[in-house]
Amino acid sequence: MSLSEESVREVLASIEDPGICRQDLVKHRIVTGIEVAADKVKLDIEFPTTAYLPALQQELRSRIETALKAKGAKGVSFATKVVTAAQPSTSDKPLLPGVKNIIAVASGKGGVGKSTVATNIALALKSFGASVGILDADVFGPSLPTMLGEPEVPPGTEAGDKIRPAIHHGIKVISVGFFTDAKEAIVWRGPMVHKLLQQFLGDVVWGDLDYLICDLPPGTGDVQLSLSQLIPISGAVMVTTPQQVSLIDVVKGIAMFNKVEIPLLGIVENMSYYECSKCGHHDEIFSHGGGKRLAEEIGVPFLGELPLDARIRFGGDTGVPIVASAPDSDYANRFRSIASKAALEAACRVLSQPKRAKRLAVIS
After folding, report:
1. CB neighbour list of residue 355: distance below 8 Å, 6 or more residues apart
2. DSSP of 97-141, one letter per residue?
3. 125-138 confidence digits (pLDDT tens)
4. Residue 3 contacts by C-beta under 8 Å, 6 or more apart in sequence?
5. Taking the CA atoms of the chain, what radius of gyration do you get in angstroms?
6. pLDDT per residue as tens digits for the range 288-322
7. How far apart are alpha carbons 259 and 359 in whole angstroms?
8. pLDDT per residue as tens digits for the range 147-160
9. How far apart are CA 171 and CA 211, in angstroms?
10. How far apart are CA 300 and CA 266, in angstroms?
11. Mean pLDDT (the chain, rounded)
12. 104, 108, 177, 280: which has the fewest Cβ within 10 Å?
């Protein structure tokens, strides 16, 4: 029996995508074209993110070839391209018309390495070929100017009083730290913070970006509520350390994101363990595995664990994060894995929910 387009489609509907949603290839439209001639099949595949890494692509091709050849295909060829899936806007006049996805990086409490994770995720996405920006939304404790070092292009202004973001390691960056004295405390009430965020979103020339990473302040305050009102956030990455006192605050942060209808892309466990570089002794200083257990309990992806290591800390202190300073290191590969999983989960959310109702956050 000869293959037809319909029979090929039936086969594809039985194949689970190894990267996006774990759904079949027809349901979430990753296969965009089918040609059948003399039992030879050509498929057009559209990957919705540059973070669909080569190993996953090869696994997908292998699954398709195996399934189709079992049904009599004499050959299978592929034409692939990347078209980054974009989170639908919740407004007729969006503040960020050229930004396809906004990923918030958050934590329940301070000191867990949230900004380190945010900067390295951004650099990892950039290494995949995505266009990336970072919004330092930690208004009262901006650390990105230090963690990213001297910019290749400093921030400035353009015609119409628009703000030109700085360029660090090929990434567009804006932070209140660019415009304030590092030794001065920022003492603002909520409305001032809201106004600043509006300016950083609407008055900054972000241009076209595949991903804007928002480094949020710790906790559940004004910044989180303001951003949930102002922009369509694709999802949040929660950063925690393994000990119970940190996990308690993470649960509160997750509850906040649920209230403002921002999906959780996954949990990252930082400072999971320490391994002595001289003797190899492995020590779980802050316990171990708490982040993974929490992810399993609430049914969200566990994106990965990161060790407590001086090289990661040194990269942030010197302005060259480890994904940029040591791209071939195990630590950089860990950050790339986390970034890929987060981006794949964000793409899944877009494909599964092409249009979400406008979110309303009530400040009481």
Report:
1. 88
2. TTEEEEEEEEESSSSSSHHHHHHHHHHHHHHTT--EEEEE--TTS
3. 999 999 999 999 99
4. 36, 39, 41, 68, 71, 72, 73
5. 22
6. 888 999 999 999 999 999 998 888 888 888 999 99
7. 10
8. 999 999 999 988 77
9. 10
10. 6
11. 89
12. 280
User: What is the chain's length?
Assistant: 364
Instruction: Tell me phi and psi for residue 164, to 5 degrees.
Output: -95, 120
Query: For residue 221, which amino acid is it?
Result: G
What tokens appear for 193 in the block?
Answer: 């913070």
CB atoms within 10 A of CB 125: 28
Identify the three-state secondary structure at position 294: helix
CA distance 203 to 8: 49
Closest to 120 measured CA to CA, from 292, 357, 320, 346: 320
Location of structure tokens 């301070």:
110
Query: Which domains does the chain show, CATH number per domain?
Result: 5-82 (3.30.300.130), 99-352 (3.40.50.300)
Give percent of the chain above pLDDT 90: 65
The answer to whether residues 343 and 125 touch, using CB atoms and an 8 Å cutoff, is yes
- Six token digits for residue 17: 């995508």
**What does the angle CA 284 – CA 279 – CA 242 come to, to the nearest 5 degrees?**
10
Residue 144 backbone phi and psi in degrees, to 5:
-65, -35
Name residues whose C-beta falls within 8 Å of residue 194's C-beta, 6 or more positions apart in sequence: 222, 226
Say whether 95 sits in a helix, a strand or coil.
coil
Q: Average pLDDT in the 107-127 region?
A: 94
CA distances from 170 to 10, 31, 129, 151, 166 (A): 43, 32, 11, 9, 9
- Give the single-character DSSP code of 177: G
